[in-house]
Amino acid sequence: METKNFKRVMVWELPVRFFHWVNVLTIIVLTLTGFLIANPPALQSSAEATNLHSFGIVRFIHFAAAYIFFFNMILRVYWSFVGNKYASWRAFWPFSRKMWNNFWHVMKIDIMLLNEDHPDVKNISVGHNSVAALSYLVLFFMAIIQTFTGFALYADTSGWWLPQLFTWVSPLLGGDFVVRQIHHIAMWIFIFFSIVHIYLVFYHDWLEGRGEVSSMFGGYKFVREDRVKKVIKVDETESKE
Fold this sequence. Notes:
This protein has a single domain (about 5-40, about 50-240), classed as Fumarate Reductase Cytochrome B subunit (Up-down Bundle). It has nine helices and two strands. It has helices at about 15-40, 55-80, 95-110, 130-155, 160-165, 170-175, 175-210, 215-220, 225-240; strands at about 5-10, 220-225. The chain has a two-stranded antiparallel sheet. The radius of gyration is 22 Å and the shape is elongated.
């Protein structure tokens, strides 16, 4: 049996990993507190209503997580201009030839559950594959929608200048009810994406054995040594086109 040598490649830099895990935590907190805000449970207590701050605490946690989510997103946008090629905005550009060369290769693996024994080197992705990159691009726009609608709903009860920048959103979309519905639907899109994302990460980790899961902790992936130079050469060639 032929033995393949693998080389460690630094793919995800520390700021990218930091963004990822902060994003995970804030989305979990925002989702849980969002459900409570949308459908608050009845709390049985003999204390005076003015002494109970349970719902206020839930709202505070939700808004605090929203601010962290917002500034964390700004950090990721900044790093897309100064980070390595795997973090660059170019990796998410949907109109490159490499993106579409890789698209059907990934669809065959993820959707049709096929496996190419000898894939074209142009179809090998060290960072995000094209399907993941496109889904992250869509998710970025969903994050913008969540930010705009969330701060628009918060603006009426906040005196800080940042939420007040979004007061125009509610009148534009037809009022708070519509804005709240959009905000709620976008949350479900995040939930659906998270389920598919977790499944595919573990699936690719098992199928390819390149450290897909551990790479988001340590930053390194493993690439076959005989393909490293070829992949880099293709990347450099297509980046000039």
